Amino acid sequence: MAEDLLKRHSAIQGLTEAAADILIRSQATLALTGAGISVESGIPDFRSAGGLWSRYDPAEYATIDAFRANPEKVWQMLMEMDAIVGQAKPNQAHLALGELEAMRLLDCVITQNIDNLHQAGGSKNVIEYHGNSSTLSCLWCGKTYKAEEKRGETPPRCTCRNILKPDVVFFGEAIPEKAMRRSFDLASSAQALLIIGTSAVVSPVNTIPSIAKRNGAKIIEVNKERTHLTDTLTDIFLQGNAGEIMPRIVAAAKKKKEGVTSS
Ligand code: APR
């Protein structure tokens, strides 16, 4: 038993060192994150067992048509998410990405998440591919509000009395043009791509790994379980909780960077 544990530990250590080597050598590094990176902050992901879509059918709660047809119903789910996101703090994985950026080993985080935890975790260069829940808009008159202006209103209403929609991308809505263009540009010139906590099943964001791979990027995947990327595009797969794995990659990269600068 102890021998197996030792073997597993040294295998992960070897993969962690290899991932750190890629980050040290890369001149253009991107991270692509999904809901899994925020699970250790208490925010459920979507497709794991017990995830949000096991309790709310996305066809009834997460499409723009569902919102237009029955905004009060969609706000039942949004209020539950809002309460959880409102108390969530960045975890060790968010902080690790903030540190990599500060060490100039990470240029940008492209996130599918709307929880603002990357910014709270120190990342300055963040592309929010699916928008952000901190502002609300009126689909009828176009007026926008800060979410905290409407805190406690269930559902929040515009002065024109219509129900407001959070500025997150619902299924059936377009991805913010700037976010899409910047992400594809960065993916096309990336030398390393960290993919953390995403099942990579939603498009068009899930084309980013193949764009990066096609342009020669090394792919490091951190996930609790294997995904369809693991055996196709991924070069280094680190299985486990992002909150445990990411700080180890940063520690290994720091050691290598100090080694390089001091030699
Ligand atoms: N550490 C690492 N990975 C984790 C952790 C963790 N602690 N917890 C869960 N995961 C992994 C899961 O194994 C899964 O592969 O994170 C992934 C989460 O996948 P999804 O729930 O599908 O979330 P995501 O990929 O972000 O979904 C993309 O779908 O519904 C839409 O708009 C929504 O942005 C979301 C998009």
What would you say this structure looks like, in words?
This protein has 2 domains: 20-43 and 90-130 and 175-263, Rossmann fold; 45-87 and 132-168, SIR2/SIRT2 'Small Domain', CATH 3.30.1600.10. Helices cover 42% and strands 16% of the residues. The protein is built from 10 helices and 9 strands. The protein has helices at residues 2-25, 52-55, 58-61, 64-69, 71-87, 92-102, 117-120, 177-189, 208-214, 242-262; strands at residues 29-33, 108-111, 126-128, 131-137, 144-146, 165-168, 192-196, 218-223, 236-239. The strands form 2 sheets. Strands 3-2-1-7-8-9 form a 6-stranded parallel sheet, with helices on both faces. The model has no long low-confidence stretch (mean pLDDT 95). The structure holds adenosine-5-diphosphoribose. Adenosine-5-diphosphoribose is lined by residues 34-36, 39-40, 45-48, 51, 112, 130, 197-199, 201-202, 222-225, 227, 241-242.
